[in-house]
Structure formats: C-alpha cells, structure tokens
C-alpha cells in the first residue's frame, strides 16, 4: 500500500517519554547432564543452524545521516528518524528495526542497517511528521537523507489550522530573532562602553550609551553605565579645572554631575520596575549616585543613596559606607564624613581605613588649651588614630598618624609585633 503524507503537528508542551519494557527470562527446569558425545553433537547442530556473522559482513552494513528542518525553516531539535520495510501494515502496527535520535542541531546519524529498500520516517512525540518513501541500502552504503518540511509541496498539504499555527509561529520567531539581534548589539555597546570608561574615553562611552538607551530605553543597566561615563567626564573636568587654577564649581561641571545623577536615578528606577530586579545593579547604581551627589556637595542625598546601596546588598554594607565617608571627606563635608565612617566601622570593626577617615575628619576640630598651649583633640579622634595603627601598623597612613599623635602629645598605642625573621 502507498504511504500517505503525514501532517505537520505542533510540538506538545508535555511530551511522553516512551520506554521499552524488558522481557522476563523464563524459568528453566532441571536438565540432566548429557553425555560428552551427545553434547558435542548438539553443539555442531546448533552451530550449523545459527552460523556466526562474519566481521566482514558486519562492516558491510549500511549507514545513514542527515539534517531535519521543520516547516518554519528551523532545525528540528528533537525527535527520531525511523526506518521500516513494513509497507503493508497499518501505521499503528508498523515495525521499525532502526531508530536514530535527532540532536538539538537537527542532525541525526545511524549505522548497522541491513541491505534493503526502506521507508525513512521523521517522528516527534511519537507522531510521524515526514517520510522518504524509498531509500535503498546495499552493503557499505552511507546514505545522506535530509528532510526539509518547509518545502512548498509539504506546506501545500497542511491543513488550514496548521498553516495558521505555522504563520503565527513564524511571526513570533521573527520577533524573537530580531530581539536577540538587538540584545547582541546592545551587549556589544555595553562591553565597549565599560572598556572606554576604564580607559578614560568618556565621550565615546557617553555616545555609545546614548545610542543604547535610545534603542532600548527600558533597560536599567544601560542608564547606569551612561551615568558612569557622565560621572567620569565630570571628574575629569573637575580635575582639569583644579590643575588650571579655575573653580571646580563651574556650572558646566556641575551640569555634568547632574547629568550623571539623572542617568543613575533612571537606571535605578527601571531596575526596580523590572520583572527580576537585580540587587547588584541597584547597589551599583546607588553607590555611584552617592558619589555624584557628594561631589555636588549634597551630603544628605549622598548619604541616603549610600544607605540604599547597603540595603540592596547588606553583605557589602561596610564598603558602601566607607565609600560614603571617603566621598564626603573629599568633598569637604567633614562632620558627615565622620558619621559615615562610624557606619562603616559598625558594619566592619576591622575596616582600618574607616578609622583613618574618622580621625582625619575629627582632627580639624582640635583646639589649643590656653593655659598649657597644648593641642587638644576632640573626643574619639585619638582613639580612631590608635585603632588605625592597631589594625594597619604598616598601612599607607601609619607614618602620618604617628606624626599627628606625637604632635598632639598623644601616646602611640599598638599591640603589633613584627614577625620573627
């Protein structure tokens, strides 16, 4: 009988995994021992009835390989290729002596096929999708049999319902492909922008991230990276102004910092509104926002931003509070820097640099005793310096701290002992 074409069917979400049941070995009764001559005779008879297959015959069997494409023109990423010579049986009763899996790339291969004329089928979810009616194998043949279900004659035989489903699938897949292409392009821009920021090429990074945010304005990390470029540009301008002897508080420089603030806030808000907000992105955005506010001299908003960074990533709270202390100290906000140093110390009592910033922020409040003419450090200052030396006796500020303590007549305390040589 002639085998009719099989309709393309959509893949089910839940597939049945069909296994083969193993047969049970029959129980054997007691067999009496045969004589040596009888056993030898039986061996000869059995050997004649079942001649061994030679190695040459096994090597001469055929093989097959090929590629399978679904009706949408995409590789069929799972299923089986089955071979049968059983052309007269109903589909449900047909025997398939050879079955070869289709891999995720749509490729399949198999060997050990006895000579004969086979029908080669494509199956998925135990349903036949396509077939090649006649593939003849001779000894040693290696057949290439591809299946392209996007061919016109295959599509023409599909039902209206299946053609409609196919068109919807093609449309959805085209959107996915286009979106993936856009994401790849944006990732390339993001990678380059980060490299430019690291190298100090801030103008190039700003241009790349402005293009990226225009293409995908709802992606928070793009805005945060744009903010990094704008903050870097503002820092470079402030540094150049200071070197030239002009005011770093120039309105044009302040505008650069404000541009960074705007970008960071946009990125933070978009990340928070996304389906899967990233704690890392939130913390990075708030940390950088704290820097931008601090360099604008806005101590309160800076402190609030750093607090939010610590809230987003509590495990790194000490680092964010230390960044806050350093930013405010460099901005000349000494009282606020001291308070931030206390937060960093509370989060990590072994943060030596936080004690140093606290001591530096407090020493500016030192007074002179009118009677003794000795310098009197404010409460907590000497203790902060001493704790710095306790934790970092050979630290980068150790010599300066010892000099300050000597200058104000304070004792240099440290339980540090040099290692034995």
* CA(first)-CA(last) distance: 95 Å
Which word captures the global form? elongated
The H-level CATH homologous superfamily of the largest domain, spelled out, is Tetratricopeptide repeat domain
CATH architecture of the largest domain: Alpha Horseshoe
Biggest β-sheet strands, sense, barrel:
4 strands, mixed
Stated plainly, the CATH topology of the largest domain is called Serine Threonine Protein Phosphatase 5, Tetratricopeptide repeat
In the CATH scheme, the class of the largest domain would be Mainly Alpha
**Residue runs with pLDDT of under 50 for 5 or more positions:** 1-58, 416-421
Describe it.
- There is one protein chain.
- The protein is of the alpha+beta class.
- It folds into three domains: 106 residues, Immunoglobulin-like (Sandwich), CATH 2.60.40.10; 177 residues, Alpha Horseshoe (Serine Threonine Protein Phosphatase 5, Tetratricopeptide repeat), CATH 1.25.40.10; 73 residues, no CATH class.
- 52% of the residues lie in helices and 13% in strands.
- It is built from 14 helices and ten strands.
- Strands 1, 4, 7 and 8 form a four-stranded mixed sheet that branches. Strands 3-2-5-6 form a four-stranded antiparallel sheet, with no helix packed on it. Strands 9-10 form a two-stranded antiparallel ribbon.
- Strand 5 and strand 6 form a beta hairpin.
- The longest helix has 40 residues.
- The chain is elongated and about 120 Å long.
- The N terminus and C terminus are likely disordered.
């Amino acid at each position: 009988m002639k085998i009719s074409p099989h309709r393309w069917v959509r893949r089910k979400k839940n597939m049945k995994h069909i296994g083969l049941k193993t047969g049970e070995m029959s129980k054997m009764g007691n067999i009496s021992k045969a004589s040596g001559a009888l056993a030898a005779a039986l061996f000869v008879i059995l050997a004649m009835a079942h001649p061994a297959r030679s190695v040459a015959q096994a090597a001469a069997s055929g093989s097959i390989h090929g590629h399978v494409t679904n009706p949408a023109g995409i590789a069929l990423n799972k299923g089986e290729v089955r071979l049968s010579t059983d052309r007269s049986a109903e589909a449900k009763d047909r025997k398939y002596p050879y079955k070869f899996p289709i891999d995720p790339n749509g490729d399949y291969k198999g060997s050990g096929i006895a000579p004969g004329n086979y029908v080669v089928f494509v199956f998925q979810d135990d349903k036949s999708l396509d077939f090649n009616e006649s593939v003849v194998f001779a000894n040693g043949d290696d057949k290439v049999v591809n299946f392209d279900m996007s061919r016109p004659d295959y599509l023409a035989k599909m039902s209206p319902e299946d053609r409609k489903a196919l068109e919807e699938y093609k449309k959805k897949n085209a959107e996915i492909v286009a979106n993936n292409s856009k994401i790849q392009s944006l990732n390339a821009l993001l990678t380059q922008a980060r490299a430019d920021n690291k190298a100090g090429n801030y103008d190039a990074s700003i241009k790349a991230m402005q293009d990226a945010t225009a293409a995908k304005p709802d992606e928070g990390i793009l805005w945060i990276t744009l903010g990094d470029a704008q903050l870097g540009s503002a820092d470079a301008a402030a540094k150049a102004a200071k070197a030239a002897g002009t005011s770093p508080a120039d309105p044009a420089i302040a505008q650069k910092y404000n541009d960074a603030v705007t970008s960071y806030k946009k990125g933070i808000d978009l990340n928070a509104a996304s389906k899967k907000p990233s704690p890392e992105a939130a913390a990075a955005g708030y940390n950088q926002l704290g820097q931008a506010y601090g360099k604008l001299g806005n101590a309160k908003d800076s402190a609030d931003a750093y607090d939010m960074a610590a809230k987003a990533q509590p495990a790194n709270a000490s680092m964010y509070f230390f960044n806050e202390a350093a930013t405010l100290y460099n901005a000349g906000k000494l009282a606020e820097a001291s308070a931030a140093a206390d937060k960093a110390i509370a989060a990590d009592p072994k943060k030596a640099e936080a004690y140093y910033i606290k001591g530096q922020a407090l020493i500016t409040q030192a007074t002179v005793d009118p009677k003794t003419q000795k310098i009197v450090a404010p409460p907590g200052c000497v203790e902060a310096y001493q704790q710095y030396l306790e934790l970092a006796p050979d630290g980068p500020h150790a010599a300066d701290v010892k000099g300050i303590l000597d200058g104000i007549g304070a004792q240099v305390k440290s339980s540090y002992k040099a290692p034995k040589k």
